[in-house]
Design goal:
By secondary structure, the protein is α+β, with helices and mostly antiparallel strands. Helix content is 36%, strand content 23%. One of its GO terms (biological process) is lipid transport.
Amino acid sequence: MAHTCRGTINLATAHIDTEDACNIVLSSGGRTYHLKASTEVERQRWVTALELAKAKAIRMMNDQSDDSGDEEPTSQSDRSEIQGTLKILISKLDDLSTCNDLIAKHGAALQRSLSELEGLKVPVEGGEKIKAVNERATLFRITSNAMINACRDFLDLAETHSRRWQRALQYEREQRTHLEETIEQLAKQHNSLERAWREAPTLVSSAPSAPTTNKGSERSRKEEASDEDEDTEYFDAMEDSPAFITVTASESTQHRRSQSNLSGASGGHPGDWNQDDHMSPSCNDVSGKELQPRRQRRSHIPDKPNYSLNLWSIMKNCIGKELSKIPMPVNFNEPLSMLQRLTEDLEYHELLDKAARCDSSLEQMCLVAAFSVSSYSTTVHRTAKPFNPLLGETYELDRLEEFGYRSLCEQVSHHPPAAAHHVISQRGWTLWQEITIASKFRGKYLSIMPLGAIHLQFHASGNHYVWRKVTSTVHNIIVGKLWIDQSGDIEIVNHRTKETCQLKFSPYSYFSRDVPRKVTGVVADSGGQAHYILSGTWDEKMESAKIVQSSRGGSGSEGKQKMVYQTLSPKLLWKKYPLPENAENMYYFSALALTLNELEDGVATTDSRLRPDQRLMEDGRWDEANSEKQRLEEKQRAVRRRREAEASDALDEGREYEGYQPLWFYQRRDSVTGETSFVYKGGYWEAKERQDWSLCPDIF
């Protein structure tokens, strides 16, 4: 596009739906775009074009090479090689043009000579021979003329395209140079702003002090250059005021019951959880004994070393590339893999234990919504990148004795990077998901788009919930303090009852008067009637309020009528655990994250805990970790090349070749979403029982 793009969507994984005669809905990951055509015919043309583009995008994605180190930035030698190739091509074209002129010249001379010969007085037999030669020369000339014309056409075409390619190459070079200069200029401006701020003591003394950590981070964010405002434009469809207004009913209308005994649940404080009018007692019925851990696990890891690194030298060659294709030193990582980060979603598993005991599916939906939000609570300070898992890498988390669940992850695809996850709990629920991480470095910020659906099924009721994750954005990649934002919409659907929950993650805006990291939501029945309002922040807590009355209110900013909901006072659904002591020196890991890489006996030989570069990084030996990381990636590349060679041989011989197949998961079409995804096929925990890991590949 010649002008600034409003946003991007990955067509390879997008869903294309039609709402009515003229509307098209495009959704992928946490993003949804609503497009409107002027006529039904035009809409159909767009749908056809989008479907064709989607098919092409899928083909392109499948054709891409699959490794992190394969895409090297264009070096000076590459550039000179391109220039040399172009020069050779031009000289060859000149040679062709010269040959063209010579053939024409010599052909004409030959024809003249033959004509002169024919005019001479010679015996009859000689005349016949000369006539035959003349005819052959004429044929040769006709053929030469045809070739000359074809060469001329080719020359014209080559010159036209050569000019076009040169223009395109020149444009790309100018754009890259311009981008580099802009970012360098930004870095200089940022430094001068910092100096100016330090040299102005009057401004510092007059600024209000920040009493808490959250306020401090908010204030420091506002003190940085306000160039983030142009990013808010990216989410403009979500920045309008909420589509409803909540009014709390008077306290006298409520009948409070005694506090529950959930002191061991998410909030960690007895007063955080109440049995009340809108949570049935069955949801709260759990004995404190079940929540007592039986094994003492580690509560700290070695402090993060303070190594300096020239970020700009690495990042300037990464603009516009897929993050998984950039060879990164471990300095940007945290000592956990993506599989372990995925397992961290289970930090507040007790919300699902509680939801499994709910009689009301709407109350259950509130707890499922709180669980979906809680998975983002650990990300607020976690700006480091997890390790990209190797193909076939696994991670298990066996908490059967303590909390009644077992979790298994496996890296099922390396490009695009995809991980399959399966959790089964003895407390009445099963969760599974396949997540593909799409990420783009945009120069100023990094967008991380998790693609794929999360499924949750409760055994007793058969309620089957499906939702998708929102987009995460890491800001200030080049200059300033890194910070993370979550934005987008989550729709949770109970496919058995057709009840829904619409959650909205509001993007951070410098000028907004709302609480940062705000999340709001509405739980509705199958007929669209709202029953609960959800509110809170993704980094702290979520509350629910039962709706007692709803009515149409006044018009909003766009002329649409807003719903006014009268609710009971809000009740706490979930509250974040405080971070462990000294967390700022331990990568801001939560209590669960600190235990994830702890060595355990009997795990598979492909388990992330046994990955050597990750272990060296955790121990603070970063130089050795970088060397080990390169060795592992080269080993993976060699295996991939061997697999490609085997596939090529099989194709030549006309044999069927079965590509890489994951060990513990298999691909099937989901009956609920209609998507093809990897699901657990069983056998892992039985293999662990027997300690038989003979099928595991040698990846470390």
